[in-house]
Amino acid sequence: MEPFQLEEWGSFWTVDLQGERLFAAYAEVGHLWESSIDTDLTKSGRLSRVLIDEVEDRVFTSGMPLELEEGYELAIQSIDLDGNKVFVQLMRGGAVVDSAVVEPSREGADLDDRTYTYSVDLGGAEEDVVIIAVHFKNSFRGADRDLATVDGIWQISDTPIEIGEGEVRVPQWRNFERDDWGHFYTLESDGEDYFAAYADDGCLYDVSKEPDLVNHNLLSRIIYDDGQERTFTSGTSLELEEGYELAIESIDLDGNKVYVELLKDGRVVDAEIINAGVLGAAAEEKTYTYTRDMGEAEDVVTIAVHFERSFRGADQDLATIDGIWQISETPISV
């Protein structure tokens, strides 16, 4: 998975085929994913060449269209009197194939207002896949001519490459059992779903330096994805897999902050303070995370534990957790 040059558009998946980087699918929670009906070309055995992915400023006018690839060009037909709304037409071979109004200079304009997208059916299998996206920075209505500045262009070929169904797969979007951790991607190998990457909408992505194992041709077995409530005490550790256990060392006098240590095979490998009992604390404040290098992927979250509440007692301290995530620290190569 890699981000668009214009990062606000989200991310996309590519496949390396005979040394060429080819578009495979739009990643979830991104503007171009939301603008497409079908988002994954590999489901029907197709890929597409990436023609343009840039963030360079370009100015074009009502007399000089914005030139794209494969015979497409985007032309300004008119700009309203306030200079906010731009009526554009997409042409191919001199014929108009699409038209739209974008509003780059309107006060409060969002990404949708500023982005022109063009979708087509690719190969008769995928419906309404975005093949062209242009992000408008601003617009201006002049006395002699109108002009607009764009600062992001994306284009893939409208002639897909046939690869055969099942020959190439892209990771699939999944929900954590703990909803406020966001999402992650899995990839099937030998009939089992393996962890592939963290989606960029949650704290486990934010904590990981390199959240995508696929970029390093790695996958990892999912050991825990559990939203069940469990209580453990200062005298009884929370047992995890692969020799790990999480122990409560102390809880502050208010019963809000928990000092925990992570042990592997009886040896302390990490320690952290968690705001387990703080009212209104964000998910990342109530989540213990442990990261480690996996192959060439640096600082990937392999363990996450979400604390629901904590209690300081006279004889022992205790905490209730309601989310555990663990992936194997020994990845497989793909």
UniProtKB/TrEMBL annotation:
<protein>
    <submittedName>
        <fullName>S-layer-related duplication domain protein</fullName>
    </submittedName>
</protein>
<feature type="domain" description="S-layer family duplication">
    <location>
        <begin position="3"/>
        <end position="167"/>
    </location>
</feature>
<dbReference type="InterPro" id="IPR006457">
    <property type="entry name" value="S_layer-rel_Mac"/>
</dbReference>
<feature type="domain" description="S-layer family duplication">
    <location>
        <begin position="172"/>
        <end position="334"/>
    </location>
</feature>
<dbReference type="Pfam" id="PF07752">
    <property type="entry name" value="S-layer"/>
</dbReference>
